[in-house]
Amino acid sequence: MGLVIAVSGLPAAGKGEFAAILANNSIPVVSMGDMVRAEVKRRGIPEEPSVFGKIATELRKEFGEDVLAQRLTKAVDGLLEENQIVLIEGLRGTAEREVFSNHWGENFLVVAITASLELRFQRVKSRGRSEDGELDDLLARDEREKGWGLGQIIEEADKKFPNEAGLEELQELVSDWLNLL
Q: What residue segments make up the domains of the chain, in order of their start?
């Protein structure tokens, strides 16, 4: 069986950049955030910063805290049939981590990307995603996601990458780590 890596981090810490580095190394990436964005689109809801968290919270309340993980596991298993490593981008909750850990056991690990609030807000302002907004929106997202257990996930991650110095440094750190796998 292959290896499943789940990347976590606060909003705009660099999960997407981490995913891009792995994708450039021919590692397939599935995004938990894309699942929420697809649900917003499916419901025909206008995309605003508060909508995505609201829909993610509604899904968790209606179907359980592990709903996204449960929905994603089968797709990842399919990718493992042809790939040695698969990345799950956007692990945010301890219930999700538990599903993945129980399903893949020792073949599952968690990576955390960390960055300061100031730097994350600069990134939010520059990337222009519909779920991004002002500093208050970012702080609200941080608190909501920490409420799902994200702080604990980051703290207990198998591997942590600081993303303060820029993309080149992150690429170098991650590439070196991938070579060890």
A: 3-180
Tokens 């994350």 — which residue?
A: 120
Q: Which CATH class is domain 3-180?
A: alpha beta
Q: What is the torsion angle, in degrees rounded to the nearest 10, for the CA atoms of residue 56, residue 59, residue 64 and residue 65?
A: 0
Closest-CA residue to 8 (of 115, 134, 118): 115
CB atoms closer than 10 angstroms to residue 134: 12
Residue 103 has pLDDT above 80, yes or no: yes
Residues 21 and 176: their CA atoms lie apart, in Å, by 11
Q: What is the pLDDT of residues 50-96, one digit of tens each?
A: 788 889 889 889 999 899 999 899 999 999 999 999 999 999 899 99
Nearest to 97 by CA among 144, 152, 57, 56: 152
pTM: 0.88
